[in-house]
Amino acid sequence: MIVAPSLLSADFANLERDIKRVEQAGADWLHIDVMDGHFVPNITIGVPVVKSIKKAASVPLDVHLMIENPENYVEAFLDAGADIITFHYEAVADPEALIQKIRLLGGHAGVSIKPKTPPEVLKGLTPNLILIMTVEPGFGGQAFMPECAEKITTVKRNAPKGTIIQVDGGINEQTGKICADLGATSLVAGNYIFKSDDFVRAIMSLRGGQNGK
Ligand code: DX5
Ligand code: ZN
Prior knowledge:
By secondary structure, this protein is an alpha/beta fold. The protein is 33% helix and 19% strand.
C-alpha cells in the first residue's frame, strides 16, 4: 500500500516541518493538491510552492491537478519536481495524449475521475496511476462516499496490469480498509493524518494493521 499524506491539511506556515514529520512517520509519497478556482471552487498552490516542497522533500511528489487545461501546465510542474502528475479526465479532450506527453517529459502519469464520472470511461487508457475521488474535489475534510469506492472493482478489471489504483477523499482507518479490500494500492489522506496526534500510528493504520504491509 502506497500511503500519500495530502499536504492540503498540513500547516502551510510550517510546511518543511510537516513534510519531515510525515516522512519520518513513514509516508511513501507526498500528495500535493493543485486547484485553480475554475475546475474546482477553491484555489491552493502552484508551481513555485511545488519547487520549494521539492527542496524539503525526500520522497516522490504526487501532484494532483484539479485545474482546467492541465496540458498547459504539466511541463512546469515536472520541471518544479513533480514525480507523478495526475490530471482529471473531465478536464481534457484527449486523456491518452496527455498521458503520453507526461511520460515523454519524464513523469509518471495519473488520471482521476470525479464522483459522478463512471469508471468505464477509463477503459483503453494506459496511465501509471488511476485516482478515484471519493469526495467532490475541492476541499479536505469531507465525508467519504462509499458508492465511489465501489468503482475500484471495475477500474481494476479494465486497467492495464500494474496500474496503481489510488483513492482520495475522506480516507481514515475504516474507509481505507474498505478501499484496500476492494483492491486499492494507494491511499491519500489529509485530515486523518495531519489532525492525528500520532502520525506513525495513522500512517501504519492505512497500511493495514499494526505491523503494516
Ligand atoms: C480534495 C483533495 C484531497 C484532500 C483530501 O479535493 O484532492 O487530496 O486533501 O483530504 P481528506 O483526506 O481530509 O479528505
Ligand atoms: Zn488530492
